[in-house]
Amino acid sequence: MPGVRCALSALIAVVTIAALAPLHVGAQAPATLVVAQNVAVTALDPAGPSIFLVYPAGYEAAFLVYDGLVRFTEAMAIVPELATSWNVSSDGRTWAFKLRPGVSFQDGTPLTAQAAVADLQREINPGTNQSNRPLWDPIASVSAPDAITIRIVTKEPYGALLNTLAHGSALIASPAAVEKSGAQYKLHPVGTGPYKVDRWDVGTQLEVTRNTQYWAGKPGFDRIVLRNVPDSTTRVAMVQSGQAQVAEAIPPENVDELGRVPGVTVTVKPALRTFGMGINMNRPILQDIRVRQALNYAVNKELIVKALFRGNATVLRSPLAPQTSGYADVGPWPYDPPKARRLLEEAGWKPAPPIGVRVKDGSPLQLTLLTPQGAFPHDVEVIETLADYLRNVGFEPHFMYVEPAVFWDHLLIPPDQYKWDLVLFGFNPSNGDGGYHLDSLYHSNPDRQHRPRVWNFTWYANPEVDAWLNQGARAVDPKVRAAAYAKVERRVWNDVPYLWLYAENVIVATRDVRGVEVLPIVFTILRAAHR
Amino acid sequence: MLAYVTSRLLQMVPHALAILTLIFVLFRLVPGDPALLAAGMTATPDQISAMRHLLGLDRPLSIQYLSFLWHLIHADLGTSVTFGLPVAGIVGHRLPATATLAASSLGVAVGIGVPIGVLEAVRPRGVSGQTASAVAVALLAIPNFWLGLLLINLFAVRLHWLPVAGTGGAAFLLMPTLAIAARLVAVVSRTTRASLAEVLSEDYIRTARAKGLARTRVLVRHALRPALIPIVTVIGLQAGYLLGGSLVIETLFDWQGLGQAIINAVALRDYFLVQGITVFYVFGFLLLNLTIDLSYAAWDPRIRYG
């Protein structure tokens, strides 16, 4: 069979040559920045309902295309952007913003106070903007007394107004473009930002080019390509090989290896997103505060952080992460298993040999632990490790894993439909404000018939906490707010509606690029990126 | 032939209807509320019910079912909730990438797998046959994502010869093709070996040899052609799966095809997009099966339709 063998060798030779030949790697034009994001940009209307889905990629893209009246610096300070200055009336309810002159939208229409007001009215209208309601509901009206002044009147004094205006949902869209595109506006965004949308393969890749009319000068790149690369291994490899210059959501275990690659910088920054196990406060056995305290004493959080995150997280000492406005150190809950056992004894839970699960009135101390698989970093490993600690003091943990897509269906439902006792949850205050964080998770729910108000799915309720939250929200003076929120943090911490764990770090890798801002609210801001 | 094709196409109608009904029912049983997703996480109950109405989810199931079929007849796979774009458009946009990857993988699989299988069948105890056999088993054993990672590490990260990931020309196609083809090579070679070995034991092969025909001629003309039927069947089935997109490989290599689209759609709970892509898979699979069946006549002259 010389013929067959000959053909076979020829084929193998061809394949080998094809495989080994150094094919030209599609060399990027020098002025293009390629960014590997872990999720896809799916919509770019700041007032649209679905911007939440595309967190953080959608916000990161929006911050390239749009400007806001104000913006966050990397240190979460709020500085002027389209507004050059502002003041607030003595009653704390009327704010006046002076608009930067000579700015145009990418569609050529000028940015006037009337245009900005029309856009902000879209934001405060619950009909168009169904997301982020807690941020926008305190605003009563927006008006334009003259061509360069925007007046915002709030229902009560609203200390976090600037945080709301620095939030992604407050980016200013061209009202002319909104009207022109209608329901399709989310795919045809027009802002005043440094880059404008050029090509968009929705769900895969967004390409923006330099806005030549940009008011603050020439942006650092001709083109920025935002690519959805869901696999973290691929994102890491893209930076290693130079195919991407920015890659976000780098796993902690890749930090050291990536840091050794010449030209690659790995930015590790403590984030504002806090993690913990929300406790189902409607479950009778968990209504006993001693059981909830025992949960917190039973778990060695330092070791979880060290082992699972290679130290790339901070153990919580407050319901808020440090760097959040209004943060107060009120912790810790130290690792103390003997104390946890003592508390459970006092609560009437006695160990039942031979397996050691505690029993009271004939029923075992069972807990169902809920987590999405793959929605949060190391989520499954975290609760499996944690379950061992709980077992150690006499709990009998059961696991309930769900797809990330249906996770919220287990939380945002009436409490009598709950199937879990503890749930792993991470909350990121995307406006950098501790008041928003505390209010979303710990303000009591109005009624039991419906799903929780915002994210209070533990059904924690304390009238004093509600009062302090309202007090903080209504204050404009940061000191008054901080004092009110410190009281909230201390009380919530002692009421134990959570088994508090850690605040993670944001990890972003960059290569041969400067000016990339990594914000603790998990957004990578690229508008000032340059070679 | 035409009558046969027509009757086969008609037979497909009840098949398709049964599968479509199953898809419809299954998607209504999946947990999760598309209206909640579309309305936004913090939407009020009123806003959610308004969205449910807009999506037609408040209508009786029977009406929803009929409307689903009615739209399908008009080639309307619905609208993606996330993107606000027609599903058919998204499928059409993603299909070329997946088809390219499927075709190149099958090409490599056939080009390498068939010769290996022939070698195994002809020389079951020879060194070359044994080696080919060992290679085939090894390829079958390596998970494709693992092979993909090894390829990325070697050719992209260390050698800088190929791009890590993305959709583009030959350079982008090579690694995902090899990652998918590895297992297919094994499948094709195993099938070739088994099928060819059986044919080679037939009486007419002995007769052909006895007539004094050259070995290669016996092998290629008399044995390989009828042996191709099971091979073509296997390739056809694999092509069906590949048309659905190799989910893991498309994700790993950021290959922007249907597999990646459906994974994204599931993650975003884009109910209508997942449903639409699934419907597309069903029809793709049915048509591919028919094509394979019809191609038998081309391989084996003894098969006639009509």
Brief write-up:
With 531 residues, chain A is an alpha+beta fold. Chain A has helices at residues 2-20, 57-65, 113-124, 133-136, 161-166, 175-181, 232-241, 255-259, 289-298, 301-309, 337-346, 379-392, 404-407, 434-442, 463-474, 478-495, and strands at residues 32-37, 70-72, 78-80, 83-88, 94-99, 139-146, 149-154, 195-201, 205-210, 223-228, 246-247, 264-279, 313-315, 350-351, 358-360, 363-364, 366-372, 396-402, 422-427, 498-511, 517-518, 524-525.
Walk me through what this model shows.
The complex is a heterodimer of chains A (531) and B (306). With 531 residues, chain A is an alpha+beta fold. Chain A has helices at 2-20, 57-65, 113-124, 133-136, 161-166, 175-181, 232-241, 255-259, 289-298, 301-309, 337-346, 379-392, 404-407, 434-442, 463-474, 478-495, and strands spanning 32-37, 70-72, 78-80, 83-88, 94-99, 139-146, 149-154, 195-201, 205-210, 223-228, 246-247, 264-279, 313-315, 350-351, 358-360, 363-364, 366-372, 396-402, 422-427, 498-511, 517-518, 524-525. In chain A, strand 17 (366-372), helix 12 and strand 18 form a beta-alpha-beta unit. Chain A is globular and about 75 Å long. In chain B, helix 1 (2-29) packs antiparallel against helix 13 and helix 5 crosses helix 8 (170-200). Chain B has 13 helices and no strands. At the A-B interface, helix 1, helix 7 and helix 13 of A face helix 2, helix 5, helix 7, helix 8 and helix 10 of B.
Features:
heterodimer; A: alpha+beta; eleven-stranded mixed β-sheet; four-stranded antiparallel β-sheet; globular; B: about 300 residues
Topology:
The complex is a heterodimer of chains A (531) and B (306).
Chain A: H1 2-20, E1 32-37, H2 57-65, E2 70-72, E3 78-80, E4 83-88, E5 94-99, H3 113-124, H4 133-136, E6 139-146, E7 149-154, H5 161-166, H6 175-181, E8 195-201, E9 205-210, E10 223-228, H7 232-241, E11 246-247, H8 255-259, E12 264-279, H9 289-298, H10 301-309, E13 313-315, H11 337-346, E14 350-351, E15 358-360, E16 363-364, E17 366-372, H12 379-392, E18 396-402, H13 404-407, E19 422-427, H14 434-442, H15 463-474, H16 478-495, E20 498-511, E21 517-518, E22 524-525
Parallel strand pairs in A: 1-10, 1-11, 17-18, 17-19
Antiparallel strand pairs in A: 2-3, 4-5, 5-7, 6-7, 8-9, 9-10, 11-20, 12-19, 12-20, 13-20, 14-15, 15-16, 21-22
Helix pairs in contact in A: 9-11, 14-15, 14-16, 15-16
Chain B: H1 2-29, H2 34-39, H3 45-54, H4 61-73, H5 87-122, H6 127-141, H7 144-158, H8 170-200, H9 203-210, H10 215-243, H11 247-252, H12 258-267, H13 271-299
Helix pairs in contact in B: 1-13, 5-6, 5-8, 5-10, 6-8, 7-8, 8-10, 9-10, 10-13, 12-13
